Amino acid sequence: MTTSSTMRTPVKLPPMPSESEASKTYKSVDMARSYLEGDNLIFDDNDGFDRALRDGFFLLKAPSYMDFEHGDRFAYHFFEPATEGDLRPYTGFKSYTTFSNSYEGYFDREHDQWEHFRLERKHWHLMPSEVATLGRHMAHIGICVLRSVLTYVGIPRRDWELITNGISEGLENQMLSFNHFRSEKATRGSKFHRDSGWVTVLRSTERGLLAYINDELLAIDPVPGHLIINFGSSIEVLTENLTPNVRANIHGVARTERNGQRDRMSYVMFLVSNLAGNVYKYGPNGPTKVQSVKEFVIQEASRTYDDDNDTL
């Protein structure tokens, strides 16, 4: 058992349900709602910011300039064999498994319905230009959220670049990940897990996402015209000694069930630290280094993709 100071307290979880079981069993979270005013995060309700930090999830109204058509198309087709015609730029990505690192390209998760395709910003030229544009918009939103949160919890601007490994300044890593959940595969959608990064910007159009909030499993349901935002373990570790602090709550996807209908898809923008960086905690004397990002990511990933279904 690791003694890492960044390891979250183990949580005993119920088995991942199917979509139909989840819809009957788990009520929907009343998520705080927000929008961007310029680059500033504004919540509809006075207690919205505090609720968002406490729950680890909130809704953000998608700016009017965002067009999800091409991102949705890519998510629905990236795993299909390369084809001709209009879909040619959106297919054939299942063969992209030869990146020099271990975190980009196509992945088939052994224990999940989940297959996904991930690319860092420097490789977005491999996708249709409209998808890359959407990725830049999603990254900008994530950075606005991150900066607003750092301001809200009282961390001085001078420390942002160090503690976020440059993420607050728009530096790497900005990772787009497209997810397809194969209903014909008789297993969970995805394991319960925490994101390891800073801010996750999620485009989802269907129910199925569940989160463990305040010792209760609840549904994180999409709302038309809104993105779902959640926080990763990096910002939870950073702020755990502050008031207020940020929660990175556990979440996963119910087993997708379809009867001849299109499978579930989603896609996300992850803001994640470079593996060469460090993880910090913030306190009265400023930032304290607690672990390398590489060690932290290995620790978190080992609990995200294994076959241990009911403990995280």
Automatic annotation (TrEMBL):
It comes from the Bacteria. Residues 1-24 are annotated as: Disordered. Keywords: Iron, Metal-binding, Oxidoreductase. One of its GO terms (molecular function) is oxidoreductase activity. Coiled coil: none annotated. Residues 171-273 form the Fe2OG dioxygenase domain. Belongs to the iron/ascorbate-dependent oxidoreductase family. This is Fe2OG dioxygenase domain-containing protein. It comes from Photorhabdus namnaonensis.
